[in-house]
Specification:
With about 160 residues, the chain is α+β, with helices and mostly antiparallel strands. The chain contains six helices and six strands. The chain has a domain at about 1-115: 3-Layer(aba) Sandwich (Rossmann fold), CATH 3.40.50. It is about 35% helix and about 20% strand. The longest helix has 14 residues, at about 50-65.
Length: about 160
């Protein structure tokens, strides 16, 4: 149950109104996503949650469940998330990365700024092929005194912009 409590706590950080999941199987032994809001016992349907909240719940479940895989790959996890949720998500990713390789693709300067330079691999297109370069904090240390990683990316210092070939 510690993993379940961790998921609930993470979801409640992002959606303070969230009370608990209702995990009752149907006769066909399937569990539908139902939940309770604080202050009521009325079962709520998933459509009562925003897309970002639903996405965060899915990400929290994937990142906080007991280890089931050596690698987790997530594409653009920031979509639809509140800026506060992006910060919480980055903490979940960092915690999971201690025992699982987490590969994430993002276009969010805000999410990039939550990580250290050594955590970031920049993908560029060059002559029809993708190239991957791990950032080196020493090479950008002077920039990092004044700017976040996301700001450096937006300024074109880190590369990773659309390429016109």
């Amino acid at each position: 149950m510690p993993a379940y409590r961790g998921i609930l706590n993470a979801v409640r950080l992002v959606a303070p109104f969230f009370d608990d999941f209702i995990l009752e199987p149907t006769p066909a032994e399937k569990v539908r996503l139902m939940w309770k809001q604080k202050g009521t016992d009325t079962p709520m349907q998933p459509q009562a949650l925003s897309d970002g909240t639903l996405r965060f719940i899915c990400l929290a479940v994937a990142l906080l469940q007991p280890k089931v895989s050596d690698t987790i790959i997530i594409d653009e996890p920031e979509l639809g998330l509140h800026p506060f949720a992006i910060s919480i998500l980055s903490e979940l990713i960092e915690a999971r990365a201690h025992d699982t390789q987490v590969i994430m693709a993002t276009q969010s300067p805000e999410l990039v700024s939550c990580f250290d330079a050594e955590d970031i691999i920049v993908c560029d297109r060059h002559q029809g092929s993708s190239t991957f370069t791990r950032l080196d904090a020493k090479n950008i240390s002077l920039w990092l005194e004044e700017y976040s990683l996301g700001e450096l990316w937006q300024k074109g210092i880190l590369n990773g912009e659309p390429a016109h070939e």
